[in-house]
């Protein structure tokens, strides 16, 4: 199968290597570097995989044909609205850094279409399945938000305080999933708890940014930090937020993060 991967960074190429090993023909396009011509890359492909930053979606998605299967492997989307015109879109999301995948260390990934279970069959991927597409998207976006707070609290991976925080954050994420029509049990998959654990510690960029805030090393919101973008979307009402979510409320009330 000819597959286009939009986003030729470390993660996109790591996934591409798995697909190549499984016998597929991969074409790359990277909006950041303009690698190869966009039209040539997507012409004649049977599937498109979006691995570019979510912030590039408004520019890229309208250029894609709506009848070719689209796989979303980028995090930062809280709703399905950006993909509403596509007749068939799937989500690929979970716990795994590009370097880990390339080194053969197992990444725990959730997929929303059974065809991806076969497509990405690999010893370095532990795949689970759900049809809850929006739930998987929300987990991938929200874990970055809670990773910022983990850094602000200077929580150390593996400690009692860190584990208690994961439970606290997990309950809030489940409440958010339920309030927005998703299955709260989706959090128990690779896209949820496992990805939250991975992100609430170094080398996560969101966790590191939280540490910078804790140590008074920054006084400006960093738009390159995914959790900042998601916090703004939440504050602007992109999802429903139930009462009683203390950690999320604390984050939303910090002017540094949301203005």
CATH class of the largest domain: Alpha Beta
Unreliable stretches (pLDDT < 50, length at least 5) are: none
Q: Would you tell me the structural class of the helices and strands?
A: alpha/beta
Report the strand count: 7
Largest sheet, described in full?
7 strands, mixed
What fold name stands as the CATH topology of the largest domain? Rossmann fold
Per-chain topology:
Blueprint: E1 2-6, H1 10-21, E2 25-29, H2 38-42, E3 47-50, H3 57-60, E4 70-72, E5 89-95, H4 98-102, E6 107-111, H5 114-119, E7 125-129, H6 133-152, H7 160-179, H8 190-199, H9 205-214, H10 226-235, H11 246-252, H12 255-258
Features of the shown structure:
seven-stranded mixed beta sheet; 12 helices; Rossmann fold; 7 strands; alpha/beta; N-(1-d-carboxylethyl)-l-norvaline Dehydrogenase, domain 2; 44% helix; 259 residues; globular
Task: Please sum up the structure shown.
With 259 residues, this protein is α/β, with parallel strands linked by helices. Helices cover 44% and strands 13% of the residues.
